[in-house]
Amino acid sequence: MSDAVPFGAQLYEALKQRGQGAVITGRMNYADVQELKAADREQTAQMFRGSSYEIVQHIRNDSPDELAELFVGYAEDAATAAGAIVFVGAVWISG
């Protein structure tokens, strides 16, 4: 994407292009999506200010594609962990 496109819009598109990116973008309301699409890199970092220092540094330094891959990786790890907990819970309950 062109440099004229805000960083947040590039990130949003990169997330949409990845299957698990919907886990992240699907939890955003319309106003949040519009805010992200208009955000430059620093404004995007501010939107994630409740995140860890590591995440904020990735936002400040990584490309939108690299950041989308990182976020999708975190989402997949969380889904795997949640699946393992549900599986263990189901085995424990049935056992």
Describe this structure as you would to a colleague.
The chain has one domain. Helices cover 75% and strands 0% of the residues. The chain contains six helices and no strands. The chain has helices at 7-16, 21-25, 30-38, 41-47, 53-61, 64-94. α1 crosses α3 and α4 runs antiparallel to α5 (53-61). The longest helix has 31 residues, at 64-94. It is globular and about 40 Å long.
Please give the structural blueprint:
Blueprint lengths: L6 H10 L4 H5 L4 H9 L2 H7 L5 H9 L2 H31 L1
What is the CA-CA span between the terminal residues? Answer: 53 Å
Question: Strand count, sense and closure of the main sheet?
Answer: none
| Helix percentage range | over 70%
- Low-pLDDT regions: 86-95
Radius of gyration: 16 Å
- The outline comes out as globular
Number of E-type strands:
0
